[in-house]
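tl;dr need the bound structure. longer version: we got a ligand (fe (iii) ion) that a collaborator sent over and nobodys looked at where it sits. i said id run it. heres the input, straight from their email, havent touched it
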Amino acid sequence: MPLVDAVFRLFAERGSGLYFGEAVTETEHALQTAHLAEAADAAPALVAAALLHDVGHLLHSLGEDVADRGIDGRHEDVGAAWLARHFGPAVADPVRLHVAAKRYLCATEPAYLAGLSPASRRSLELQGGPFTDAEQAAFRAEPHREAALALRRWDDAAKVPGLAVPGVEHYRPHLEAALKGNA
Ligand code: FE
């Protein structure tokens, strides 16, 4: 099966679980994140990264209550490792860094931390809390840090119950453009 079809099947088969502690499903959350990226005129690879940023959740299916059970599934590493097999670093890196971006913003923007949803604040602890100075410096050295920060803010905003946005098929051109060999 072509990769893009396999991705869409993942959403169809595993995306209907609730996104950790929020009132939207995994698929709704992914579609809203991608929609925000596209509305911000992000490059196709970053729109693809937005759609796929939580693919690690779908891949390892630990269930919808991972944060409640006190497990940090490291979904960003699972997702990025899988994405790196099929897409270039402009897709895989922002995904790998989207939790780091949250920890970075929590350390550097008090208003960001205050604005996190309760579930996101709970998972912050499991993810290691706000970055130390040394961790912030390491993050600032990442080539795709700006993309990761932008992705993070779309991610945080993509939790609106019942919002009407385009479906997965809308993103086929973005995904195909970002595939290894096509980018
Ligand atoms: Fe997310």
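gonna send this back to them w/ a short note. The two ends are 20 Å apart (CA to CA).
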